[in-house]
Specification:
about 325 residues, alpha+beta, Alpha-Beta Plaits, 3 domains, nine-stranded antiparallel beta sheet, 9 strands, extended, nucleic acid binding
Length: about 325
């Protein structure tokens, strides 16, 4: 309210309108609260911004399939490309080609779109049209998936048949193969099955697959990165600074034969480099080098999924050299 001009009447000052700085005696509780708040803030220090550590990163899409064409001796890349363009009717086949590039080894790499379903048709057409002028092979990224909780009488053929049925694949699909079937706990078995990356991720997303009577658990097998130059773990051959063992057997480190025909006692080259016992197969349960390389994957089991599929496994279908 405004005081009328010339009014000599004195209005008492309201304590609620008195500034806090001038009310030390009238409002002691408020001053104590302000002092305590400043003290707690000073003890706590500057506040940190909250970060959502559980927020998942967007995974990169899986690499699509591809077809590699290697010109025969006496043929050039340009001549083969002209023959493909002139003889192969891509619109009639319906294949979705993304890019056509040339590799360092001189092969023509035809990469297909991720949604393409005509790779095998295009591969057969290229093989028929080119004949002996070039070798054609299909490239498919593979993954190893682990099937658990199988009962003791389950066979490898039964596992392959049930997985093909679950994925809707053809009965003669050879890209699904059981690599190992071994005993597990409480009378059960555990199978390692190699298949295309797209199929492996479908099974892992489903979580379980019916094998006989059992809905068995399915998960992609986490692998340690392996170098095929020094036969060690934790790096690839592009960054290898170790001993060159490209001409030795990866099971016994001897020269003169390959792992497929090896009959010598096992010797682990990776454990030899770190001065550990070597009387075991590389990557087995006794391999200390493999266990050390797997430590980052055990602490962060999703690391391999973000990195993408296992690029060390590549399926080559129906190679034709003419």
């Amino acid at each position: 309210l405004r005081r009328p001009a010339g009014d000599a009447m004195a209005y008492p000052a309201s304590p609620l309108r008195t500034p806090m700085s001038q009310s030390t005696n009238e409002f002691p509780l408020i001053n104590e609260w302000r002092t305590a708040k400043k003290t707690r803030k000073a003890e706590r220090g500057p506040t940190e911004k909250k970060t959502d550590t559980n927020k998942r990163k967007r995974q990169k899409p899986l690499p699509p399939d591809a077809i590699a064409v290697r010109p025969a001796e006496g043929e050039t890349t340009g001549e083969i490309l002209k023959a493909i363009k002139h003889d192969v009717e891509i619109d009639k086949i319906g294949a979705l080609v993304s890019t056509i590039t040339e590799s360092r080894s001189g092969e023509i790499v035809i990469r297909l779109n991720a949604k393409d379903t005509k790779r095998t048709v295009l591969e057969d057409e290229l093989r028929n049209k080119l004949g002996s002028r070039a070798g054609v092979r299909g490239l498919t990224k593979l993954e190893d998936i682990e099937i658990q909780d199988l009962y003791s009488v389950t066979t490898a053929t039964e596992v392959e048949t049930c997985i093909r049925h679950a994925l809707g694949a053809h009965a003669d699909d050879q890209t699904i193969q059981v690599k190992s079937l071994r005993q597990s706990y409480m009378g059960t078995q555990r199978a390692t099955v190699r298949m295309k990356s797209t199929d492996a991720h479908k099974l892992e997303k489903a979580g379980r697959v019916k094998i006989g009577w059992v809905y068995a658990r399915a998960r992609i097998k986490i692998r340690a990165i392996k170098c095929y130059r020094c036969l060690g773990y934790g790096h690839r051959k592009q960054h290898c600074t170790g001993v060159d063992r490209t001409e030795t057997c990866c099971l016994c480190t001897s020269k003169g034969h390959m792992a497929s025909t090896c009959k010598s006692p096992p010797k682990c080259a990776a454990c030899e480099d770190i001065n550990e016992k070597t009387d075991h197969y590389p990557g087995s349960g006794k391999c200390i080098a493999y266990q050390r390389a797997m430590v980052p994957n055990k602490t962060n089991p999703r690391a391999n999924k973000r990195r993408g599929p296992n690029t060390d496994c590549v399926a080559q279908t129906h190679t034709s050299n003419g």
